[in-house]
Amino acid sequence: MEKVVQKTTSKGQITLPKFWRGQFKTTHFVLEPKNDVMVIRPIFLNDQDNYRIIFNADRDNKGVGVSAKKLLKEIK
After folding, report:
1. Is residue 11 part of a domain?
2. Tell me: the pLDDT tens digits for 15-60?
3. Is the residue at 13 inside a domain?
4. Is 20 helix (H, G, I), strand (E, B) or coil?
5. Which of 5, 43, 61, 70 has its CA 20 to 30 A from that of 55?
């Protein structure tokens, strides 16, 4: 699999390249820190029962995202 270097935006966001997103029939992904890496895995609707959504911009913030710093503060 090809490696890609992505830079975060000023809001702390990254973009998953289209050729990777297109390999999965979902728009939801799980991010999981493991030691010194961040693992990003697709999640499918039938798998969501195994995960807890901690932030939903539409539900929690009138459709506006939050910074990673603020999100980390909220979940600690």
Report:
1. no
2. 888 888 888 888 888 889 999 998 999 988 766 666 677 777 788 8
3. no
4. helix
5. 5
8 in a structural domain? no
Burial 24-33 (b: 16+ CB within 10 A, else e): eeeeeeeeee
Where in the sequence is the domain holding 51, given as residue range(s)? 18-75
Of 75, 71, 58, give the one whose Cα is nearest residue 12: 71
- Specify the pTM: 0.51
> What secondary structure does DSSP assign to 23-74, as a single string?
TSS-SEEEEEEETTEEEEEEE-GGGGGGS-----HHHHSTT----HHHHHHH
Asked if residue 3 is part of any domain, the answer here is: no
Number of folded domains that form the chain? 1
